[in-house]
Records
---
Amino acid sequence: MKLESKIQLIVVGESCVGKTSLLYKYSQGFFTQEHLATVGIEFFTKEEEINGRKIRVKIWDTAGQELYKSITKNFYRNSDGVIIVYDVTDRESFEKVQGWVQTISEYTDTEKKIQKVLVANKVDLTRKVTKEEGMKLAEKYNIPFFEASAKLDIGIKDFMTKILTDVLDNVSVDMSRVTLDQKLDNRKNKKKGLTSMDFLCYH
C-alpha cells in the first residue's frame, strides 16, 4: 500500500506522567520504566493504516518541566494533534491539565483546528483521580477521553486510532508538506550540503 499522508502529533503533560512509556509501547511494542525523563523534546515514528489509508505518524515527546515549555512552542504550531496526558496516581498532574489546555490554545494556529485527546495514564496503579473526574474534565473542554496503561497495554490503540482518524477527517495532510523539523535540519546542515533526509541517515 502506498504511503498517502504524514501526520505530526505532540504529547504534553507534567513530568513523570508516563508520556514516553506510552510512546515506546505504541511505536516499538515494549514497556520500560528504566528510561530517563525527557529533556527538551524527542520524537517517535510509526507507519499506520487508518480507514484504508497508509500514514506515517511522527510524535513529538515533550518534557513536562516548566523550564522546557518555551522550547516546544513551534512544535505545537506544526502539529496536527495533541495528546494531553495525566497520571491517575498524581492528582497534581490532573489539576494541571487546565494549564496545558491553555498552552495549546496560546501556541497553536487559530486558523487550524488542532485535534486533541485527554489520556488518564497508569490505571493499573492505585488511583488518586477517578474515571468520572477525568470524564468530567474532558467534557468541560469537549475533548475525547481515554484511560490507559503503558505497562498493561490498555487504551493506547484506542486513543491513537481516535486522534489519527480525527486528524484525517479534519485536516489536509500530505507527503509534500515541508515540516518544521525538515526546515530545522536543512538549515542546520546547509553548510555541509546535506538535506534533511541525508541527515537522518547519520543518526
Note: The chain has a mean pLDDT of 80.
---
Amino acid sequence: MSKLTKNQKLAAGKIEAGKAYSLNEAAKLLKEITFTKFDASVDIAVRLGVDPRKANQMVRGVVSLPHGTGKQVRVLVLVAPDTEIAAAAKEAGADYVGLDEYIEKIKGGWTDVDVIITQPSNMGKIGALGRILGPRGLMPNPKSGTVTMDVAKAVQEVKQGKIDFKVDKTAIIHTSIGKVSFTAEQIVDNARLFIDTIIKLKPTAAKGTYMKSIYLSTTMSKGIKIDPKAVDDNQ
C-alpha cells in the first residue's frame, strides 16, 4: 500500500471520521484539503432511494448553475451551414457548426465535443449516430434541451453553466458543479440549486428515504459527507 503524502495526511486530519457536514462547512473544508497545482473540478455525488431499473423511478433533469461549471464546454451545433440559424449559433458561442460534414466526422470516430445541439428536423439524419453518441452521453435529446427550435438560446445556456444529469444504474447522480478556485459561497450556491432540483424531481413511486447520501469532493480529494437533512427538510 502506498504511503500518504504530507498534503494527504494534512487533508485526512481535517476531515472528522463519521461526521456529516453542512454545505457551508463542506465547501470551506474542500478548499482547505485540495492541494492540486491545477484548478480541480468540484464534484457532487448524490445517492437516491430509487430503483433506476423501473421507468417510473428514473430521475433525470437539467439545471442552470448560477455560477456556471468553470469548464470550457465545447459545443457542436448540427444544422445546415450558411443559414441564419447557423450564424446565430456561432454568435451564441458554438465551437462547431455544420451538418453533413460533422455527421461524417462522427461516423469516422470524432467525438471531441462536450454537448451536441440540433433542431427536430435534423434528428432523422442524426438518429443513425446513436450507437456512437449514446454511450458517450452526447446524443441530442428534447428532455435535456439539446433538440430545440431555439438553437442559439440552447448554446447560450450550455455555455453559461446548464448541465444535464441522470441517475445511474447504482442509483447515484454524479456531476461537476464548479472549480476549487470558486469561492465557498459560489460552491454552496451551485450545490444547493443542484440538490433542490433533484428534490423537486422525486418520483411519486419512490418510497422511503429519497436522499440517502451526499458527498462533495474535488478531482483528487477525499469525499466529504454532507448531511442530507440539512438540505432537504421534506424527507
Note: The chain has a mean pLDDT of 90.
